[in-house]
Amino acid sequence: MTMRAQLQFRDLTLGYDRHPAVHHLSGSVESGALVAVVGPNGAGKSTLFKGIVGVLKPLAGRIERGGVDPHDIAYLPQVAEIDRTFPISVYDMVSMGLWHRKGLFGRVGRADRDTVEAAIATVGLTGFEERTIGTLSGGQMQRMLFARLLLQDARVIVLDEPFNAIDAKTCADLLELVRHWHREQRTVLAALHDIELVRANFPDSLLLARAPVAWGRTPEVLTAENLTKARHMCEAFDEHAEACAAEAA
Amino acid sequence: MIYDTFIAPFAEFEFMRRALVGTFAIAFGAAPVGIFLMLRRMSLIGDAMAHAILPGAAIGYLLSGLSVFAMAGGGLIAGLVIAIGAALIARHTEVKEDASLAGFLLISLAIGVTIVSLGGNNVDLLRFLFGSVLALDDQTLLLIVSITTVSLLALALIWRPLVLECVDPGFLRSVSRAGGPAHIAFLALVVMNLVGGFHALGTLLAVGIMIVPAVTARFWARDITMMIAVAVGTAAVAGYAGLLLSYHAGLPSGPAVILVAGVLYAVSVLVGPVGGLLWQAFPGRHLEA
């Protein structure tokens, strides 16, 4: 397999109200890579992911996605965005993963129903199909969202802190899915805080603290020295910051 | 006896039959829209939009008298302008959508009542505020039924993005651009159904047939499809029983319909199987697993 860039960041700056949260990021993610995005809170991990899936427009620079439409990137946002009181069943929620094939009006047929059931079985939620999402525990919720990701069948998968507040068993099961996607040569990026988990499972890492601290093979990126540097670089949001000098140059 | 009480009023009087057809049609159009208003925590926004259509309908009335289409057209335009205006203000300023609509609501109500009073008399004003379900002519019935038909079709078309935007807006944004258009289409449906309900129930009560059955349904169903079925059923029962009540007890018909819906709501709060107070007070022994 020839190495081909799936995602390329060209001097990318992303942020809110002109304040950068990801500052001058350049580099590329090879097709089929499994990359951990590591960094302190406020380092810009979620912001970077929003940029990749096209929800957030860059303040400067650009992202090239190797011919993949941003809407075809599977994205697991942080759980907080879901209204858990909404009366919808686990089954219906998971079948939303068929959106890219069914769109607004496509009929969900017998074969599709089998796929949905298979995805629910893969994440170990068989028997929960008719439950409403409000009855799920945190771990079951995350399993359900992974089932939806499975159905999206995407070339590029972006996971925003997928293992937060999840017990060891659930984490291990979901991690196995991530490794499976990697074996299928899908490109996977995941924001993570557990350094040991990253060292054990993710060949590549991006250490982010607004600006990239280090990017490459995980053992070379996640050194004690780099991690300390990342903690110090994550300086506070400055209400009265000057316009960026690199931008003017 | 049973025939005299429950069937005779409709068998004998054409205006009662028309009222029944009108309220049933409104039930089928408005109740599903009400479910989505409730689930999106926009229940009071429906109220605001109901008032928003008053000045438009009043201007239509001033220009061409009690013409159904002039009033409906005016109401539709005013409602859409205000819905979109409030959404824009909310998006571009610090004011939240509900607060900005509350502002519009009060201003619209004042303007509307003033316009109607200028051009007409108190009978007309009452008609605007509380409707005239017992005086639905062919044109009005046609309008109401058309609105219900369009509303149900449109709801079927925007169903997926609408549900998804309620439950997981982040996911919808990541897979599709349909969220924004679906939201605007939904607001248009709210306005349309209010214009339909306005002729029968008036600007103050039109939103009642939308929201009260919806919050009632929440106590009977866990699934959105069932919820919509229960809400439509509740609205239809309220329409039928309300008309009977108004006929036998000599009550004003619009308020009677909403009153019956209110009674159904109160009963549901008590005995509804999904979170009703009675079930909370006597939950029964806990289960094995």
Helix-strand blueprint:
The complex is a heterodimer of chains A (249) and B (289).
Chain A: E1 5-16, E2 19-30, E3 34-38, H1 45-52, E4 60-64, E5 74-76, H2 90-95, H3 99-102, H4 110-122, H5 138-152, E6 156-160, H6 168-183, E7 187-192, H7 195-201, E8 204-209, E9 211-217, H8 218-221, H9 224-233, H10 245-248
Parallel strand pairs in A: 3-7, 3-8, 5-6, 6-7
Antiparallel strand pairs in A: 1-2, 1-4, 8-9
Helix pairs in contact in A: 4-5, 5-6
Chain B: H1 2-12, H2 14-39, H3 43-64, H4 68-92, H5 97-119, H6 122-130, H7 138-167, H8 169-175, H9 179-205, H10 208-217, H11 224-249, H12 253-271, H13 277-281
Any key phrases for this structure?
heterodimer, A: 249 residues, six-stranded mixed beta sheet, three-stranded antiparallel beta sheet, B: mainly alpha, ABC transporter involved in vitamin B12 uptake, BtuC, 83% helix
Structure description:
The complex is a heterodimer of chains A (249) and B (289). Chain A is 35% helix and 24% strand. Chain A is built from ten helices and nine strands. Chain A has helices at residues 45-52, 90-95, 99-102, 110-122, 138-152, 168-183, 195-201, 218-221, 224-233, 245-248, and strands at residues 5-16, 19-30, 34-38, 60-64, 74-76, 156-160, 187-192, 204-209, 211-217. A six-stranded mixed β-sheet of chain A has the order 5-6-7-3-8-9, with helices on both faces. Chain A has a three-stranded antiparallel β-sheet with strand order 2-1-4, covered by helices on one side. The longest helix of chain A is centred in the last third of the chain and has 16 residues, at 168-183. The N and C termini of chain A lie far apart (40 Å). Chain B is an all-alpha fold and 289 residues long. Chain B has one domain (2-280): ABC transporter involved in vitamin B12 uptake, BtuC, CATH 1.10.3470.10. Helices cover 83% and strands 0% of the residues of chain B. In chain B, helix 4 packs across helix 9 (179-205) and helix 10 (208-217) packs parallel to helix 12. The longest helix of chain B has 30 residues, at 138-167. At the A-B interface, loops of A face helix 7 and helix 8 of B.
